[in-house]
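FORM 7B: Structural annotation worksheet

SECTION A. Query
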Amino acid sequence: MMSRTLLAAAAVAPLLLAAQAQAQEAVRTGPDEGEPTAVAEVVIPAQATFRNRTDDTVPTLSYEQQYFQRFEPLTVGDALRRVPSVTFLSDVLESDGARLRGLDPGYTQILIDGESVPGAGDDRSFFVDRIPAELIERVEVVRAPSARRSGDAMAGAINIVLRDAYTLDGGYLRAGARYFDNGEWRFSYGAFWGGQFGPGRLLAGLDVSERYNPKNKFSQRFDEPGGTLDNVEVQTDVRDGTDYAFNGAYELPMFGGDLELSTVFVRTDRYEDEDSWEYQDGIITNPNLLTFNDNDTDILTDNLSVRLGWDGPMAGGETDISLNYAMISDEQTEFETESEYLRDATPFPDEDRFTADQTLVDIQDEEWTLRLDHSRDVFGGDAELEFGIDVTLKTRDTSILEADRIRFNVPNAPGVRPTVPPYSGYDPVPGGLSRIEETRIDPFFVFSGSGGRVSWEAGLRWETTDSTIDDMTTSTVDESDYNHVLPSFSFRLNLSEQDRLIASVGRSVRRPNFSFLSPALLEEEFGDSDFIGNPALEPETAWGFDVGLERRLGRRGVAGINFFYRDVQDLIEYVNTGLEGSAGPGTFIYTVDNVGDGTVWGVEFDLSTPLDALGMPDTGVFLNYSWLDSEVEDFLGERRFNGQSDSVLSAGFTHDIPAWELAFGATYFQQGEAFDRFLTEEVTTTYGENLEVFIERRFGERFVLRLTGSNLLNASKDEIFDKFDNLADQVARSYDEYELETEDAGPVWQITGRWTF
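SECTION B. Predicted structure
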């Protein structure tokens, strides 16, 4: 049934593109500055909201919060599943590292209100599930580079625009409850208000959401593909916690311009409990129990961003001055215990050996950014010149400590074994105690203008970076510096009142993962072989272009098709140093270096429109489909970029019944297969189909109640692991282990109410 629905939507799309355009009117791209929006228009929309048709010269897709709200996404990550070319390789029911155009999260620049934010991961990415969807005003997908922004956007940028002092005029309360198929309930609450406060306008919002994700995994391990089944593993994985978020902004006129102070704070307090049982020969009975493993992680993560900015007329033009502070504090305590039962001939319940480990992770990452920006009209007002400078100071402190391993063979165990062993003797792991400091000074200028049917933007950004890497575990300090000139050019040509051509070309960069820079030696990191980082790594760079056509459909609809291409140079890949590894002959020490090139390309189609042309103005549909591909050469030959899905599809509809003050709709999401190849391991990942639905009932102008259902097709994540002891075995396909793993979680139902005042 779903396949027939999608085919029908695909058939309707060309008809809509070819339909005679109806009377045209400007499409609102968001609240006009100085004109706050009545809260009821934001919280209780009377009709479907579609993608905005922006006037940006740089190719940009913009989606207001109302576009996502009816499906009640919990986080920004959940919301992004409804925009083109965004994929995830997260666990089921998780949406953390956004992969724009299917590429690794490190290739996607995540911005909050146009400013970069640090993340806990060593690939410099920011997990978008850290931001509750309730805080956003809109999400912008910026497909191409611009000199106005940092060049760390090889795949593109996702700008999460939070509500500011002009977003709301009034307030509302929200309460919700989520029900999981294991009988558990979780709740969420929120309160938001915006309005005149003293000489300026104030926005304040608070959101508390209980997060819960119960998953089940099942693994089968063979000696090789099609070979003998060695064992199976049954695992439960429950993630339980609470997110606390605050968003505030205050804006007032000062010094002839506008002064704004804004902040967002998000705390994630989560406990992850993984229990697994491993059975010999695939027979799931106690006499065949090999091991029982209990792996728990206690996580406390804080994200804070504070911005103070002023913009207004100065020196014959417009000046923008801002100071931004952003930080992440990620503290994790992980402990793991394992009981072994078949080391001798006596099966369960007699235990043969007990092992316990504990790891403490503490990552503190801070960034200070000062931005000075001035723009002025030139050539009699036919063009604009903008120039400025961004100065960023970054400090990242990492501490990863391991306790002394506790291991004893039964019957030498203590008489009473505590649930959490008495850990002691904490020492840093290799490379686990370090400080990285970066100073970036990035001047830029942008020359833009418009005339007739054409608008254009040409820019140049010069990014300079000085880095210091202090690794306390090796007592070494490495310094490096590099700079890149990043030109960019975009133009928009209005072919008619309905159609326009948008094109862009530019250069972008991707800085190395923090873990790649550490000079510490990690023994047997890849099977039997070792790994050591390379502090002298240079960033990857890419030249690329986007070319797209966009058509307005009726008064509110829009459809577009875009082709993109990236030519990546100085690609970072694993290489063999030729030195013997710690395990002796036949093993090696591997590192990473800038080697070779790679290419990425694809086609993106998006449609968002009411069905006015079919006489159904109260029905809105959207269809996003991206075909993605790439090529890179590694130690075994050609492959795609690691983790890139070959396609991604999201489609859905909403239907309003104004006379009943009722609305309902559905969303379907499917992403294609992804493949990762690393030294000694290869992973193929596929996902099942995901279906979400909602039904909404409005009660007057002040209250709306929604029932939503997600993961209704019980989507699974399926992975195939090809594992080898060393590179020679990987080349010869001589397996250490071949594993099939599937993970699933049941449907989730949610009821949410919002009341405005």
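SECTION C. Observations
Residues 1-33 have pLDDT under 50 and may be disordered. The chain is about 5% helix and 60% strand.

SECTION D. Sign-off
Analyst initials: ____
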